[in-house]
Amino acid sequence: MAQEKLTKRSVEQLAVKDKDYIVFDSDLPGFGVRVMPSGKRFFLIQYRRLGRTRRVMLGQFGPITAERARRDATHMLGNVRGANGDPAALRDQERQSSSVQELGARFLKEHVAVRCKPRTQGEYKRAVELFINPFFGAQRARSVTPADVAELHGAHSSIPYQANRTLGVLSKMMSLAETWGIRDKHTNPCEDIERYPERKRERFLSAKEIQRLGGVLRQVESDGTESPYAGAAFRLLLLTGCRLSEIQTLEWTHVNLNENELNLSDSKTGAKTVHFGQAVHDLLTKLPRVKGTPYVIVGKVAGNHLTDLQKPWRRIREAAGLEGVRIHDLRHTFASGGLLVGEGLPMIGKLLGHTQIQTTARYAHLADDPIKAAATRISGRLAAALGSPEGS
């Protein structure tokens, strides 16, 4: 095989023949260029490993320069001398490894569908199909770098909450890729990506807002413009502090009217008992049961629960002048109501089903309201007794 110093000028001057041929560099053994009958030229390295001659393409002349190809060849040929320095084997491994899209499909099937609750399954599926797959596509999972992940995360900086959730899903995928042998151990490219700050929304309805909500609920229940079960769902959410999914999928077998308890077999924090008061007891007693439907909140389709509470909620909150209030804020309002009547954080945490006091602690500032009110009353009376300062 011919040899000469491979430079931009020398590679350009290589003759095109009927068959492809290789010219090796005279200064760097193993570094060469293949000239194709089409006229295209491709840099490569050639070496022997375990008695076999191996070749690895470095790229096409033009898109990469002779100088860049020489640097890459020097690096790769230097690695050949190491214990794991087999560029061709690494190339083959790369070709055979799963794409990010294939990893995502396996992740959803073998992990999410088996280990996650239905709502979480939906959130993970959304992150994979709407954010991760469109960005990475057929890129090999083992080739994903921290720079790639940072680019994905940064592309959604305008929606920081979703960007962080997507990063979390991708991190779990990459961790499982290590377990499944798709990536090397301790190579998760998501670990060093800093998440965006998230501001927790803490919206609580005031007494006047609750009154307006109650007025609208009575109106729609009276004129039939909304399903009576939708109205019942919103009342139950406010009066129990339950999560939306817990009320939406509540079955009559979970309801113990004798003990005023909801015995939930499955929730975000596992099985739990929700204790409720007389108002909830009266509501559940009066709520019509539908034969053949196990659910408390009956849907439009026979045998099913009401699946969409967001649309009726948007109509009801608009009529009540509660723009921007979420269904989840009814749960927050239950917590704030407990604190305003003097219940402590541990009790509120038990009622909400929190497993850690830190989760309930974000409501702590509300407990100051009765204290502030008392301070105002006391200081007002004392100030009145003192009288106004002279000269004022």
UniProtKB/TrEMBL annotation:
<dbReference type="InterPro" id="IPR025166">
    <property type="entry name" value="Integrase_DNA_bind_dom"/>
</dbReference>
<keyword id="KW-0233">DNA recombination</keyword>
<dbReference type="GO" id="GO:0015074">
    <property type="term" value="P:DNA integration"/>
</dbReference>
<dbReference type="InterPro" id="IPR038488">
    <property type="entry name" value="Integrase_DNA-bd_sf"/>
</dbReference>
<dbReference type="InterPro" id="IPR013762">
    <property type="entry name" value="Integrase-like_cat_sf"/>
</dbReference>
<feature type="domain" description="Tyr recombinase">
    <location>
        <begin position="200"/>
        <end position="376"/>
    </location>
</feature>
<dbReference type="InterPro" id="IPR002104">
    <property type="entry name" value="Integrase_catalytic"/>
</dbReference>
<dbReference type="GO" id="GO:0006310">
    <property type="term" value="P:DNA recombination"/>
</dbReference>
<dbReference type="Pfam" id="PF00589">
    <property type="entry name" value="Phage_integrase"/>
</dbReference>
<dbReference type="GO" id="GO:0003677">
    <property type="term" value="F:DNA binding"/>
</dbReference>
<dbReference type="InterPro" id="IPR011010">
    <property type="entry name" value="DNA_brk_join_enz"/>
</dbReference>
<dbReference type="Pfam" id="PF13356">
    <property type="entry name" value="Arm-DNA-bind_3"/>
</dbReference>
<dbReference type="InterPro" id="IPR010998">
    <property type="entry name" value="Integrase_recombinase_N"/>
</dbReference>
<comment type="similarity">
    <text>Belongs to the 'phage' integrase family.</text>
</comment>
<keyword id="KW-0238">DNA-binding</keyword>
<keyword id="KW-0229">DNA integration</keyword>
<dbReference type="InterPro" id="IPR050808">
    <property type="entry name" value="Phage_Integrase"/>
</dbReference>
<protein>
    <submittedName>
        <fullName>DUF4102 domain-containing protein</fullName>
    </submittedName>
</protein>
